[in-house]
Backbone:
């Protein structure tokens, strides 16, 4: 089955349509669209249609997800609950770091037969150091990929709120990545807007 993706853009909103033969390709198209300068939002209407050889039962996908998480993820499987329904994988649980939450989704996303992934894994709050705001601001200044002077950082316990304006989705994502890398961060509310 050929992969056919249509792209429409209006007022900074990209709409993706068409069909692909894996969830990884659907996700990659969305990720690529977000990285284009000036893109404010993406509506991903791409449908995943698996080839006959790519179809698996929900039980097979669930078993494969558990095996993959046991061997590939940086998080113990005993902290996670995996549910599969009609090819859609939902993962719940609790981890200590943002990179672990991202890894859980990365592992599930690449499994054969998966039509979608919902990552409901939460980050267990840890005591935030008093200088958390300063650490994040310093990290933003160190990275050449974001304009730190246009970003403000607010800290409420272990929650970080980012505000301001950047020139691309990639800058917005980099600012969030820097915030997540600070010790003790449980949530990041990224209110940064993209504006040319």
Residues:
């Amino acid at each position: 089955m050929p992969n056919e993706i249509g792209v429409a853009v209006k007022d900074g909103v990209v709409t993706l349509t068409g069909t692909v033969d894996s969830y990884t390709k659907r996700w990659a198209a969305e990720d690529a669209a977000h990285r284009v300068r000036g893109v404010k939002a993406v509506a991903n209407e791409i449908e995943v249609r698996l080839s006959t050889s790519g179809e698996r039962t929900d039980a097979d996908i669930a078993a494969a997800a558990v095996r993959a998480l046991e061997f590939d993820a940086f998080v113990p499987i005993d902290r996670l609950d995996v549910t599969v329904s009609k090819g859609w994988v939902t993962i719940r649980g609790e981890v200590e770091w943002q990179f672990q939450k991202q890894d859980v989704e990365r592992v599930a996303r690449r499994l054969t037969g998966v039509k979608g992934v919902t990552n409901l894994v939460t980050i267990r709050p840890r005591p935030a150091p008093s200088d958390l705001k300063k650490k994040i601001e310093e990290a933003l200044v160190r990275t050449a990929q974001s304009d730190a002077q246009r970003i403000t950082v607010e800290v409420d316990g272990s929650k970080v709120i980012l505000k301001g304006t950047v020139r691309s989705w990639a800058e917005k994502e980099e600012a969030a990545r820097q915030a997540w890398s600070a010790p003790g961060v449980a949530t990041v509310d990224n209110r940064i807007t993209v504006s040319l």
About this structure: The mean pLDDT is 86. The CA atoms of residues 132 and 182 lie 7 Å apart. The two ends are 38 Å apart (CA to CA).
